[in-house]
Sequence to fold (155 residues):
Amino acid sequence: MAAFMRVIDEQVRLDLRRQRIFRDRQNPLDAYNDLVIIQRYRLDRQSIISIIDLVKDRLERPTQRSVSLPVSLQVFATFRFLGSGTQQRLIGDTLGISKSSVCRSVEDVTNALSASLQNIKFPTSDIDVTRTNVGFHSIAGFPNVLGAIDGTTSQ
Fold:
C-alpha cells in the first residue's frame, strides 16, 4: 500500500509541475516596416540598431542552460514599455516573452544605456532625489519625477 501511495504522490507531483512554454520570437526589425517601427518604438530603425550595438557587450548573457533573451529583444521590450506605458505583461505577450523578462530587460537596458552614455545622470543621494522631485513638482505639478527625456523627432 505504501509503494502504491508513493507512485500516486509522484504522479501528482509530476502533474503539478509547470510545463515549459517555448514562444515564437520574431525580430521586430524583420517584421515591421519603418513607419510601424517608429510608431511602436518611438525611434527609427537605424537609431535602434545603433543603440543595440552600443549596449550589446553589457547585455549579452553567456549561458549553457538555455537560449537567453537576445539583446535586440531586450531593447525592443524596453523601448515599447518606455514609449507606450503599456503593462509589462502585454508587452511580453506581443514580443513572445514573459512579464518577468520584460521587467528585467527594462532595468538592464536602462542601466546599460545610463552606463554607456555619459550624459545621462540619475540622482543618487536622498538630497538629490528630493531636490529633483520638488523641482519637477514646482514646474508642472508632477509628483515623484526623477527626470524627463525629450522624445520628439524633427520630421
